[in-house]
Design a protein that fits this description.
Blueprint: H1 14-19, H2 21-44, H3 46-51, H4 57-82, H5 89-96, E1 116-118, E2 124-133, E3 138-147, E4 167-169, E5 191-193, H6 205-208, E6 213-215, E7 234-235, E8 267-271, E9 276-278, E10 281-286, E11 294-298, E12 302-307, E13 319-321, E14 334-337, E15 341-346, E16 352-361, E17 378-383, E18 386-393, H7 394-398, E19 404-414, E20 419-424, E21 442-443, E22 445-450, H8 463-489, H9 491-498, E23 505-506, H10 509-515, E24 524-528, E25 531-537, E26 543-548, H11 554-567, E27 578-584, E28 587-593, H12 600-605, H13 616-636, E29 651-653, E30 659-661, H14 690-695, H15 701-716, H16 732-742, H17 759-772, H18 783-790, E31 800-801, H19 805-810, E32 829-834, E33 844-847
Parallel strand pairs: 3-4, 4-5, 5-6, 6-7, 8-10, 23-27
Antiparallel strand pairs: 1-2, 2-3, 8-22, 9-10, 11-12, 12-15, 13-14, 14-21, 15-20, 16-19, 16-22, 17-18, 17-20, 24-25, 25-26, 26-28, 27-28, 29-30, 31-32, 32-33
Helix pairs in contact: 2-4, 13-15, 13-18, 15-17
Catalytic activity: L-seryl-[protein] + ATP = O-phospho-L-seryl-[protein] + ADP + H(+); L-threonyl-[protein] + ATP = O-phospho-L-threonyl-[protein] + ADP + H(+)
GO cellular component, one term: membrane
EC number: 2.7.11.1
Amino acid sequence: PDALSLTPSNSFHFPQLLSLTPLLVISSIYYRSRYLCCQITVNRRRRWIETQNTMPFPTATAVLFALSCLSICFELRSLAQVSSPLLPQEEVEALGKLQNTGWNVRRNSCGSPQWNRSLSDDIECNVTCDCSFARGTICHVTNVAVKGFNVTGVLPPELGNLTRLTELDFTRNYINGTIPPSLAQLRNLTILFLNNNSLSGEVPGWVLNSKDSFDLSYNNFTGRAQPSCQQLDVNLVSSYSSSVSNSVPWCLRKDLPCPRNPKEHTFFINCGGPRERFEDEDYEEDLTSNGRSNFFSVSERWGYSSTGIFLGKVDADYLARNTFGHNVTGVYSTARLAPQSLKYYGLCMIKGSYTVKLHFAEIMYSNDQTFSSLGSRIFDISIQGKVVRPDFDIMKEAGGVGLDITEVFDNVTVDGNTLEIHLYWSGKGTTAIPDRGVYGPLISGISITPNFPVDEGGGGLSGGAIAGIVVSSLLVVLFICIFIFMRRRRKDDGNKLRGLDLQTGMFTLRQIKYATNNFDPTNKIGEGGFGPVYKGMLSDGGVIAVKQLSSKSKQGNREFVNEIGMISALQHPNLVKLYGCCIEGNQLLLVYEYLENNSLARALFGKHENKLKLDWQTRKKILLGIAKGLAYLHEESRLKIVHRDIKATNVLLDKDLNAKISDFGLAKLDEEENTHISTRIAGTIGYMAPEYAMRGYLTDKADVYSFGIVILETMSGTSNTNYRPKEEFVYLLDWAYVLQEQGNLLELVDPELGKSYSKEEARKLLNIALLCTNPSPTLRPPTSSVVKMMEGKAPVQAPIIKRGESDASSADARFRAFQTLSQDSHTNITNASWESSDPGQKSISMVDGPWTMNSTSSALSNDDHDNDDDASHLSQPSSSARLL
């Protein structure tokens, strides 16, 4: 065996040795024949050899035979090395993708010393193979354990090729990225430890539904979360980024934020045991035995997290009892233990200084002279992330087995709302005496008491309490007076609200504060027309968007009242739905439906990570939805409304990318004047119709003009307000006119669409956009006609805008298309035709003449020009939706 080197390093197996038996027999016969021939020849020369006093014949023969045997051994070793079992190439490639492991992976690497490097049981880089396949010629990787080895990068998808893998452990490394979907193919995987890394994205469903031992705690996941904190076999405590929404349970978020007002200050826990009266205090029971890698909390007051699995004892008990009859009582007769890491958390605690007492007693070893007395348990104790007792040995500190010891830590500070006690096994001590699995941290009891006075209530009132009651009474009287004064001051606004026929529900301020986590800045999703917008979650799980009125000006209150009045009367699939409102104290709030895909502007022009890939059919659907929503506002609803601020940021998209028009705060509700037209100019530069921006003249055709701009933006994927000083055009509309004159209108189509669109449909939509943006309001089609043209129920012909040659040559080419904006009555249109929305009105066609028809909104009266100075209030273009 020494000559053949039959060691695990080259994986030579006994079945291979049997296969070489015929070769051994033949070699033995061959060399035996040579020996006999040599003997006959040498007998003849014996006398000469003796006379020469040379080496005796038996010695020479023995040397020759030894050399022959040695040659056979070398041949057998060479054959054994050639026949060593090999890894499949796909498994070699999978292991080679891991970074910073130091592995030089080859097909014959199984058993290589470089694959088994352990500085301790806490820091290791090990790979285990099973070479029993195909009669010992094929190996498969079954275990990969790389713990605390500073591995970086991402988990390679090729790990899914390790089909025989049963354990994958990357505890305490620097792995980022997401969990590759290919790991779901590992049907034999029973242990998956990815805790204490930087993984992000979504936790896969197959992980959440697993019944095996999975630990993904302490990561940075941001995707969909499990609905509950109590997961029996999957530990996800503190595994989600602190930036995630409130929809993620508190126990899964970083630093375990308190889901309610902090009020806890005292804990007494009998770790691993029942309720116990000990040292004049009632210790709570801690009897859950969920097993390996889990998190458990008690009424969101305190909890624990266990990590790891005992070597050789997958189904080990994680509760210890006094089985050796030690003379211990109270909390010391039981204990909780963990294979690697055990954390206890004090939750929702009042900020301040505390005293922490930890009770220990070694009850799993005996005190006799058997093997059961030879073990040792060593682990580190950390409080609030700081190691306070390194290499803590219970028996050494207590003076022996079955003796108790209490470690006291004064002045433990709680700055947030969580106190963390961490017991961590770093691989020291014994793991196999008296039994495999008897190691790791162990604790019998915990007591946490405050170092500051706590008001627990009493039988009488102190002087301070009496003074507090008196002051409170005075404050109540003062508040009543202020309330009466404010109520009279808001009487007019209250009358306006009571006069509205609201079709919505009413929400309390308490409900909305709970839904938005008291208007947490992390829930802010945009800035509306007159205040911020927050995402919230109601108690029934419904997601809402809450618009909060800004208190900067009285104008906001008026617009708020108007918006409630109008939206409560409007119900259409292409309008943002209003769920209700809240009018309480100085808070004026609107509660809308929450739309998952934000605004059309962000989908088209947002940052790369926010943009959506909108195909041709989706863009058509969005534009048709906007047109139908406007037609409802202008012609179909009981209240004829001009929106005045149609733009891409005010078009929101639901989860199915259906368009919904938002932000009606600019329109005015005035029942006495029986009109919904405001004299105050408001809107966004780049979307406003020229007659409205220059002279304050407003009809529903102003919305038609803005919609034409939105069509151009959606078709081209370019913002109309994106100024280009070095190009031959200033605005997108200018470019469209130039291309229309050149006959190259299809150059506007977004290059991201490639060739996956209909040129005929694109040309039709672009022509509709030019019709809608005609400088003359009387020549723009009504929105109902626009809907018919988009649905193919009415003909569309390209408009032709004529200018004099002198005008074209005397001005900058970038501004030629806008020379007619101040002279809209002189613009000539040819070859334009559409059908009126009025069934009694005939289709109108024109050639070289103005088109006139009744507008759906009347012109302004002379009084509408009283506030010309309000033009200075024009809002600038915004990159985020004003409503949501």
